[in-house]
Amino acid sequence: MASAELPPSIGASPAPPPHEEAPRNAIERASAAFTRWAERWIPDAFVFALLASVLVFTAAIAAGKATPGQVLKAWGDGFWELLPFTLQMALVIITGYVLATTRPVYRAIVWLASRTDDPRRAVTLVTLFAMLSSWFNWGFSLIFSAMLAREVARRVQGVDYRAVAAASFLGLGSIWAQGLSGSAALQMATEGALPPALRAIVEGPGTIPGGLIPLAHTIFLWQSLVSVLVEILVVSAVMYLATPPASRATTAASLGIDLGPSLVDRPDPERKGTPGEWLEHSPLLSLLFVAAATAYLVQYFHASARPLSALNLNTLNLIFLTLGFLLHGTPARLMRAVKEATPGVWGVILQFPLYAGIAAIITRTHLSQLIAGVFVKLSTPATFPAVIAIYSAVLGVFVPSGGSKWVIEAPYVMQAAHELKVHLGWMVAVYDLGEAVANLIQPFWMLPILGLFGLRARDVMGYTFLVFLVLAPLVLVLVTVLGATLSYPL
């Protein structure tokens, strides 16, 4: 794995070769233009977080709902509230890398990466894998798509490194929240996952018993499945057309990034043969850990009324780590993988507290409700889904967490849905569609994989911004047209 320390050349466009081809279509020309723009104008993700903090602080004061002292207190009180989540995300990166670098799993990644030697098809392959895998689980998709993209960059001659890196992120920028790990849908379907007061709002005048909305009325609506299929087809086509040919590609080598040799069948960590190292290279302790963790997981899922809802960040990390223990075989191999993965988490550790402060300002100064009130007043039953999708995307730039942001939005979104007689389950799907699109222009969720690639946000946001420009209006059309086929309440 390449070090996460960034070489000086990253972000600088290499001189084009004299035989460089002209862009072959409008989308490729647009991707090249947006990439140049991003390299010049998009700051590092840490600077983005600082600027967002200033913007939200100023907006909260200007709204007149809180004094500067109250805004400052909200920011400071909330600054460390994401520490458990920060460690969870760091472990998603580490345990995902640990599992992906086991010999059986990495052989599967290599096999998939070798399905094509054409740069455009390779980027499309990564895009498809990222989107399909994110429907099943976003944490799995985030890391495994990045590992696939790195192997594609290693094996496919002339593939654009920035394009393939951006492709690995597109699941989280499109359909993840419409899938099995979508936070809002799982919260609505799970007892105890939301405050009782919010459940009462969803229940309405006895319309939705218990305020629970089953998955059949959110992510498994045929309208939701159609929107997922349309997004997959459109985003894959955009990335195929946007990817430059080999003659114009910015490769990992041209960026000064050494991808190193393939991890397939690499030798075991060196052992000196001392008695003290015997346990490090013995599978005994690894097998004991696997047995204990497996027994716990079986017990945990068996005790859950809804096993699917029990798959959260903690259980996902434990599953990845347990499989890592099992497939690496020895503590020595596992420790090597963890050491290799650790440099990729520095951005998460540095920046997540800033986003926690931003979220605290928005929620505790009532800035969110003020903005939402304006949107709801402008809505009719026909336009309400599109309005909420826009609002969800806007708020997602500043509160980039699907589950916690739904707690902010749900009270007034669900209340307005009752008043306007709009299908409540579809509004959960609408929230998900809008929330995911925000990730394409917000580097928060890019941080975990940018460290693995050795890139910065500006290196990939030319491509993600292009996808955003295509996907955002498409989402508004989908939520409006498909929403018209549903009736209140479910």
Task: List unreliable stretches of 5+ residues.
Answer: 1-19
Mean pLDDT: 85
Major pleated sheet: none
Total DSSP E strands: 0
Distance between the termini: 49 Å
Structurally, the number of domains stands at 1
Report the portion of residues in β strands: under 5%
Shape: globular
What does this structure look like?
The protein is mainly α and 490 residues long. The chain has one domain. Helices cover 64% and strands 0% of the residues. The chain is built from 21 helices and no strands. α6 packs antiparallel against α11, α12 packs antiparallel against α13 and α16 packs antiparallel against α17. The radius of gyration is 23 Å and the shape is globular.
Quick recap of the structure?
The protein has 490 residues and is mainly alpha-helical. It contains 21 helices and no strands. The protein has one domain.
Lay out the secondary structure.
Layout: H1 26-41, H2 45-62, H3 68-78, H4 83-100, H5 103-113, H6 119-136, H7 138-155, H8 161-167, H9 183-189, H10 196-203, H11 222-242, H12 284-303, H13 313-328, H14 331-341, H15 346-364, H16 367-377, H17 384-398, H18 402-420, H19 424-438, H20 447-453, H21 457-483
Features:
64% helix; 490 residues; 21 helices; mainly alpha
